[in-house]
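User: I'm designing a mutation panel for Histone-lysine N-methyltransferase SETMAR-like and want to avoid disrupting the core. Could you give me a predicted structure to guide residue selection? Please restate the sequence first so the numbering is unambiguous.

Assistant: Good idea. Sequence first, for numbering, then the predicted structure tokens:
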Amino acid sequence: MRKISVEQSHDNLVEDFQDQAPSKRTVERWYLDFRRERMSLQDEAREDSRINYEQFAKTLKIGKAAINTILHDYLGVRRLAARWIPHNLSEMQLEDILTCDETWICQYDPETKRQSSIWVFPGEDPPVKVRRARIVGKKMVAAFSAFEAWSSRCPKTGIRGLLLHHDNASAHTAAKTLDFLAENSVQLVSHPPYSPDLAPCEFLLFPTIKEKICGIRFESPEEARLAFEEALWSLPEEKWHSCFDSWFHRMQLCIDCCGRYFEKL
């Protein structure tokens, strides 16, 4: 069978079926299913135990208004969305999860508002701070976090069978990225669109390290990158443990909220 990318497949479908062609996201999902050896594009057969108003009306031979009154006023029935229940992951499965993200490191990044805050007594004037701009010189860094057990297996097994969790940035959802992940049998952990601080890099790693180097003027972007790396390796082991614990706690909260955005943890 000729190997073609997700983008090529979608282009071919659009050329043949035009407005009736499936979306690119659907084609991407098909590719992931094919990698899992599921070759049928049809929905899997399943029995739906739910009964709708039409079925009630046909069986009881009464109108929909009467059914609505009986269900809600007399029986107190409410319509609720199904709750997502996560699978319990084994220790070995947890070891296969990796998370990553990218960020820009600037040659000079001003102090954050929290860093420049000071204590004042009643009657004292609040501090005044001159707004300083970032220095343009910058370098992009990528950080990957995984359990030590997987890191030790990686040289032998590569990335096949890996569970990857990252946000929905354009670089992560690009066709080239998805093609690479599918070709290497990497399974993506779903990330809801409105929870940017769900991955460890976003809620802990990048904010913690940037707070250490903000306000420092570096001679070059490379010096800023080296400072970032030094701050990364200086994080204590306990910080990483709490980071991973918080990661799974946040994912559970996201599941409990059915993927909806929540502001406070």
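For picking mutation sites, this is relevant: DSSP finds eleven helices and four strands in the chain. The beta strands are 97-108, 135-146, 163-165, 187-188.
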